[in-house]
Amino acid sequence: MNEKIQMVDLKNQYLRIKEEIDQSLLSAVAETAYINGPQVKAFIESLKSFNQVQHAVTCGNGTDALQIAMMGLGFKPGDEVIVPAFTYIATVEVIALLGLIPKFIDVRPDTFELDYEQLESKITDKTVGIVPVHLFGQCSNMEAINAIAAKYGISVIEDTAQAMGAEYIYTDGHKQFAGTVGTIGTTSFFPSKNLGCFGDGGALLTNDETLAQRVHIIANHGQRQKYHHESIGVNSRLDTVQAAILNVKINHLHEYARARQAVAAKYDSSLGDIEGISIPVRANYSTHVFNQYTCKIANNRRDAFKAFLQERGVPSMVYYPIPVHLQQAYGQYGYNEGDFPVSEQLCRDVISLPIHTEMKEEIQDYIIEQVKAFFTDEH
Ligand SMILES: *Cc1c(COP(=O)(O)O)cnc(C)c1O
After folding, report:
1. What's the CATH number where 70 sits?
2. Domain region containing 349
């Protein structure tokens, strides 16, 4: 391959809509309303209408969004929040930072979501929240989670950082966008997310007006009126220039999802029958927007497979190599190896292949060829 293969191709994604982006960006710069400018307000409207949700609040990044959600819900030090052991660290970090207790739960080996069948056994009289993470771009089983949450009167915070634009499919067939099905949803506009800006950004989505008001105030130093602080807040904002970019890109989000789904479908049909590699499992209760195309490699050959691909110019990533309960920083919570066997095994087996909105046919053919070579040739 002459062309360097990438996990994500932000350059070509930009070039395809360069004129629109440049125009929006330049006018934001020229208007000089750098904080909470009209582009931010316009983006909030677009975000609400895209997700068919009543309230959206923008903030500085997806980690802040999680923290602001938990502050808005009034979680207090010592309260317990149930969170999957197999996730990105941000989900757990904010729980610890707020003095809450992370109660880890194992995940399902097929869809990587928190194991809703174990959920009820994790609930104590201190439990205040559950954080389903819609990992890699597919929704968790929200009906199962919401039913248990309702039974115990606890909140559901959907970590939608990797699943913006995915739809939860109810048993009766109707659909609702990821992040709008629980009590509140949080998301990230980090460049490599499905709706990415050119820096950091985040948002919260909810249909609960009181909660929306509260998180809006918290994100802005706890003030409704300037210099009148009614609660302890944070300074977490989406920049006007990022909003100017997102205003353009949100109009392409459905087409971005279709592009990722087409790449995933081609991987599925090309790799589905190969022994030793398991392609991603599609849940029947969600669409999949493939922020990542994450496979499992059998027989402890994941690292050999990764090295093989790398030698042939094919990048890949391991999301995630260490489960959260075994991370050094979280040792204080007293978990041990063996506590969450599925999460631990996934950390040994998973690998994500290049997937993005700009994948060229011949590049993907080359990737597929190399994957096949590993499993059919002798190593
Ligand atoms: C990216 C991500 C976040 C954090 O988003 P930032 O904008 O980087 O702070 C949180 N949770 C998950 C699952 C993520 O993938």
Report:
1. 3.40.640.10
2. 252-376
For residues 157 and 268, membership in a common domain is answered with no
- For residue 313, give the amino acid letter: G
Of the residues 204, 226, 251, which one is the last residue of a structural domain? 251
Burial state string for 217-230 with b = 16 or more CB within 10 A and e = fewer than 16: bbbbebeeeeeeee
**175-219 pLDDT per residue, tens:** 999 999 999 999 999 999 999 999 999 999 999 999 999 999 999
**Given the CA of residue 189, which atom of ligand 1 is nearest to it?**
7
Ligand 1 mean position to 109 CA, how many Å? 22
Q: Are residues 126 and 66 in the same domain?
A: yes
* CB-based contact 61:94 (threshold 8 Å): no
Which residues have a Cβ under 8 Å from the Cβ of 342 and sit 6 or more positions away? Answer: 86, 106, 107, 108, 109, 115
Total number of domains in the chain: 2
- Span 135-164, mean pLDDT? 98
Quick one: 257 and 235 in the same domain?
Answer: no
Copy the structure tokens of residue 326. Answer: 């075994």
Alpha carbon of 93 to ligand 1 centroid (Å): 11
Please report the beta strands in 291-360, taking only residues with DSSP state E, as ranges in sequence order: 293-297, 350-353
Query: Does residue 290 fall inside a structural domain?
Result: yes
Q: What is the pTM of this model?
A: 0.97
Q: Is residue 351 domain-shared with residue 317, that is, in the same domain?
A: yes
Q: Please tell me whether residue 199 adopts helix, strand or coil conformation.
A: coil
DSSP letter (8 states) at residue 87? S
Residue 333 to residue 357: CA distance in whole angstroms: 40
Q: Which of 64, 113, 159, 239 for a ligand 1 pocket mutation test, highest count of atoms within 8 Å of Cβ? A: 159
Q: Which residue has the tokens 């999460």?
A: 343
**Angle formed by the axes of helices 62-72 and 90-97, to 10°?**
40
Indicate if 129 and 46 belong to the same structural domain: yes
Q: For position 332, which CATH number holds?
A: 3.90.1150.10
Strand, coil or helix: what is 296? strand
Under 8 Å between Cβ of 137 and 289: yes
Distance from C-alpha of 151 to C-alpha of 128, rounded to nearest angstrom:
12
**Percentage of the chain lying above the pLDDT 90 cut:** 97
